[in-house]
Known about the structure:
elongated, single chain, 11 strands, 2 domains, 33% helix, Dihydrodipicolinate Reductase, domain 2, Rossmann fold, alpha/beta, 5-stranded mixed sheet
Amino acid sequence: MTQTTGIAITGVSGRMGQMLVREVMAHADLHIAGAIERSGHGWLGQDLGLAMGGTALGIHVTDDAAAGFAQAQAVIDFTAPAATIAFAAQAATHGIVHVIGTTGMSEDEIAQLAVPARRAVIVRAGNMSLGVNLLTLLTRKVAAALDADFDIEIIESHHNQKVDAPSGTALMLGEAAAEGRGVALRDVSDAGRDGITGARKRGDIGFSAIRGGDIVGEHDVMFAGAGERIVLRHIASDRALFAKGALKAALWGQGREAGEYDMLDVLGLSEG
Length: 272
């Protein structure tokens, strides 16, 4: 019998968590090895399959990450920054791959991942899709080719339940644009326009966030110059593509050296 890779899923009751469960169950090389939820959640102690409204899977939802990770080779984590930091430490203790799709992480929180990454593989990305990662490469190249006479604006649209802005993908694109320009994003980011703001500062990278309905994810990178605009766009119409990308990362990370990676590494697009 072929051995499959065990996947633990954090925040398993959420929209992405349940999507990941379905994608793992449909994947011949994977199986569910752990299901984790926050303390006090109504799913705790229940069979995961029954909690999702289906048939029993023999996996019970727990708030004990150590127990949930014990039989896994990878954990996929689309939760919240503080929880992700704690999960990273636990994943490193177990020596399993930690795939992070959590957004809204501060620079300090991201820096804290360096310690567990000494002992385990961490794959972190603001977006797990092939298309967005290609867009990231294109954004970097176009930004490098155009000087600051071209204003850069990143416009992102998501569903009305998204809690962070700009999105993790928008920030990833902003970082790519800043890298192309040879500057630090924190020095040129403009994400808070309201009221009488004055003229746009030359060289700034702007962010605009739209929230409404059930929009899965849309990202435009606009390079606006005098008399012309270049617009790079990605539209996601199916959330499953993010889950599929995360599972690809979990498999890719098996047997890799400990360290921090991103989806460009997973997809073979890294220029480093």
